[in-house]
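Record 1 of the preview.
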Amino acid sequence: KLVDIINAQYEATHSMSAAVTFTATSGGVLNGKEKTITPFSGYILLRKPESLRVIGYLPVVHSPAFDMASNGNDFKLLIPPKSEAIEGPNALTQPSQNAIENLRPYMFFDSMVIPQIGPDEVLSVTADSNLVVNPKTRKLEIRPEYLLTVQVRQPNTRFTQVHRVIHISRIDLHPVQQDIYDEHGQVQTQALYGPQQTFGTQNFPGSVTIKWPQQQEQILITIEKLRVNLPLANDQFELKIPEGTKIKELH
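->
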């Protein structure tokens, strides 16, 4: 039943256009004191299977702070205030000390739309309870969950490796968190889903917090407006790098 819920939600969303507010935070135990950047507005466009566009605007002046686009294989990240751009494959093979160079479109895509669970993946389910802060009362409360662990088979071996753990509320069966692991068995990306809200006829979390524990970076995405399954043209996912921009190629 849990698999059916996840897969039905994925299959029901073909495209998404969202006006959002970004709040970025960096730092922690490893990198020192946390620092939160002033919230700024932006847009997220996505279209299955893997097309994505994420645009953020500087506060007050409302000029572009960053613009990231991907066709599923390669991506471009433009940083206009620095006249810099990054281009490279979607796969993250060599993590950089520069946190922004570790951002990849699939980290946003798979966090905003939980990928479907394939027939060849190995599953296990456990019941647990998590202690969380209620966003309204600011008090700790116990949240009963199902932990749906999705594992992939290792080629030419009898072993499996954890790929994702999806936390699902045992109260209303809505996903509340997703932990995505890298090939080394470490959590690469965490997505935390806020309470469900109604946008037109669509129910969707009012916020999505995406965390990168290894870099101690996170971004809170607050959904202001949301439209799903609208036709999105190919050129909406094309990013043109202006002449004179310093381009760094990632491999």
